[in-house]
Design goal:
The protein is of the alpha/beta class. The protein is built from four helices and seven strands.
Length: about 130
């Protein structure tokens, strides 16, 4: 699994993911860094098979309306510590790896659940699970 962290995601998460053997990069290290447009991030992620990790609802909208980025992990937890975020990701890592390994997939983590919307057959056929 390869993960691309959006501008508002901490480098600490990038370092944690790398420590788990996951190829992780922060958007501030590629393309136009923090000036990179969301559409360019989506294109880069899709072309290089990255899961985009973001807090930005615009990526969610793009995923469902345009189909890009194909793989998206949206963090919807408000202001939590980096350590709390890392723990939540760590607790969900196996499930994330399994689901992002196949096809188009959207995962949203909020205070109450990890919601998974997976699209493995066609753009109009999807399944939704709460983990």
């Amino acid at each position: 699994m390869k993960m691309l962290c959006d501008v508002h995601i901490s480098y600490k998460l990038v370092h944690f993911l790398r420590s788990q053997g996951i190829e992780a990069v922060h958007v501030n290290r590629i393309l136009a860094k923090w000036y990179t447009k969301d559409s360019d991030i989506c294109q880069y992620a899709d072309e290089n098979d990255y899961v985009v990790i973001t807090k930005d609802v615009d990526f969610r909208n793009s995923h469902f309306v345009k189909g890009s980025p194909r793989k998206l992990l949206r963090v919807n937890l408000g202001n939590i510590s980096n350590q709390e975020l890392i723990q939540i990701i760590s607790d969900s890592l196996k499930v994330l790896e399994e689901n992002f390994a196949v096809g188009k997939c959207y995962v949203e983590i909020n205070r109450h659940q990890v919601m998974l919307v997976k699209d493995t057959l066609a753009d109009d056929q999807s399944s939704k699970d709460m983990l």
